[in-house]
What we know:
19 strands
Amino acid sequence: MNIHEYQAKELFQKFSVPTPPGRVAHTPEEAEAVASSLKTNHLVVKAQIHAGGRGKGTFKNGFQGGVHLVKTPGQVRDIAAKMLGQTLVTHQTGPDGKLVSKVLVAEAKDISHEYYFAILLDRTTYAPLIIASTRGGMDIEKVAEETPQLIIREPIHPLLGLQPYQSRNLAKRLGFTSAQMRAACQVFDALYRMFISCDCSLVEINPLALTPGGEVLALDAKFGFDENALYRHPEIAALRDITEEDPREVEASKYHLNYIGLDGNIACLVNGAGLAMATMDIIQYHGGRPANFLDVGGGASEEQVTEAFKILISDKNVKAILVNIFGGIMKCDIIAQGIINAVKTINLTVPLVVRLEGTNVELGKKLLQDSRLPITTADDLNDAAQKAVAATK
């Protein structure tokens, strides 16, 4: 789950991470009122969408940039009017872009230097890792590719946490002076406390800014949270903005289904992430294109299977459905009955290919055959993929 920049400011306040003052606005008039309350002629207006590269993005109405520096509340109103209700396209949104329904109006601070700072989970050590660089305000992937020597990595012991000497060493390697080091270390420590306390998978600050007065401020942020731990943080779960997500993914989450939309025309229903990857690979091997990744998990009910089919056919690009189930905890006869009920319920209008293997597989195949429904069975995954691809021709 991701959150907006203005929501990140609220979390920052809770953990004493310094940020410039500012508030979110949903209308041009509200944006002007926020700007007036800040009582400064150094203002910034930022479009609020779940995507990076906003400053270099382009609105479909022709307006350039999702981040603008302005001087007066009137200018804030004018900029907000050009952003709100418009679609912003960045290198991360794809050509469809994302609708801007809110903007952040904040004080624009003078900046002496911009840094990159992130805490994430290292898949190699299964422990938190700090990644930092003196090249803030730009894509860290580009920095890593062009100047890898400027990437600083600081592993954190999972039990001891971030130690004071590590914060001081990190600040020194980033070039903070002795007078600036205390402020920098306080921010590092606060961000680590937030990372652990909120069960984050990622906290990324880009840029982390140093002002001429020695302040160290978080100017932009990206968060990732461990969704398996959100039950411990209802206040964070409540920050979810479903308008920023694919409606099919939102619907799938209601039934504890894992769905990711793709751009192909063969829908996939599987049980297990590894099986999903293999299914998509073999579809492409035979010249097809997967339309989604839909994992019903190891213990899906008939209701979940029915809802899964409804989600699959809601994609108008889908020309065929491939069901690939390996019965272990999920027995083949249960999934077969779920498929039969789903087909009867939703009035399926595209070809359906089913491959079953594992526990109760013969009983599952018999149920499908006896149903006399338009369901094509397959002997193995290779056969299933070929039949699904052929059905789209």
